[in-house]
Amino acid sequence: MKPETRSFYELAVQRAVERVVTDLDGALDLQALARIAALSPFHFHRIFRGMVGETPLELHRRLRLERAAWQLLNDDLPVTTVAFAAGYETHESFTRAFRLHYDCSPSEFRQSRDLTAPTCASPFRTGLAARSGIHFEPERSGPIDPQFTRGESVMNVEIKDMNEMRVAAVEHVGPYNRISEAFARLGQLAGPAGLFRPGAKMLAIYHDDPETTPVSELHSEAGITVPSDTKLPPELREKRLPAGRYACTTHQGPYEGLGDTWARFMGEWLPKSGNRMKDGSSFEIYRNTPENTPKDELETELCIPLE
């Protein structure tokens, strides 16, 4: 492992963590956080989640809620004022979120400070579970030192020199979990055009970060690799994935678990690997399909471009 590469990713994420922690009252600008880290938003948020254990937005919300709990115990501010400061538009929405995390209402939590037999399960606990060890502190002093994930778990990753891939693709705009609709359309077009040839690879390319892009505007592509001399139907768009070095790992199991594998891949393996990501598209290659494969046996190859 190259120490300077480890430093690059840790320093990038640490700068972002510091911005979140020190500006709880400001609106969280996720695009700005990515710029601070000198990474694309899509790649930055996967790396951040993998290293910290939660997304920047989740960290921001949790710290605001922890601050609200501290204020309920130590200040006499109205509950509605505490709720607004925590980012909730109504007393009701704040109460629901607070009860979910603290097992009692904000009023009950506040009352517990004056009771000899508090009704809350953990009446004086303001910190919530967090792998990073980052919590709200009313008077923070000294540097913020997140407990980054160190990648102790085993992950099999292969560095491949890949040739350029020409892809015939169907564009999908909307929730990523509905990209199957684009694959259905791809099948309707690719089948009659004779594109399902031996060796063809089915893959998906995701362009936008769900943390920073409205769900209705997420842009992705469902594609199949095709030879360079193949004529494409006009309804299919051509996409070129450039030749180069790629890091690839395999996710086995339901597609619902892909997000966790991406987080480990980019948040655990990448920072300790001695490699740096290159600007370009990451993608998933589907080795089999749900049509004839049990969910637990689905195999998806995840690939990221390397410098």
Characterise the protein shown here:
The chain has two domains: 3-114, Arc Repressor Mutant, subunit A, CATH 1.10.10; 157-305, Multidrug-efflux Transporter 1 Regulator Bmrr, Chain A, CATH 3.20.80.10. The longest helix is centred in the N-terminal third of the chain and has 20 residues, at 3-22. The protein has nine helices and eight strands. Helix 1 (3-22) crosses helix 4, helix 3 packs across helix 9 (258-273) and helix 4 runs antiparallel to helix 5 (79-85). With 307 residues, it is of the alpha+beta class.
Number of DSSP helical runs: 9
Distance between the termini: 15 Å
Rounded radius of gyration (Å): 23 Å
Strand percent estimate:
15-25%
Order of helices and strands: HHHHHHHEEHEEEEHEE
Tally of distinct domains: 2
SS content category: alpha+beta
Question: Which CATH architecture of the largest domain?
Answer: Alpha-Beta Barrel
Low-confidence stretches: none
DSSP strand tally: 8
What is the overall shape?
elongated
Q: What is the helix fraction of residues, given as a range? A: 25-40%
Task: Give the CATH level 1 class of the largest domain.
Answer: Alpha Beta
CATH superfamily of the largest domain: Regulatory factor, effector binding domain
Q: Describe the strand arrangement of the main beta sheet, using strand numbers.
A: 1-6-8-7-3-4-2-5
Major sheet: 8 strands, antiparallel
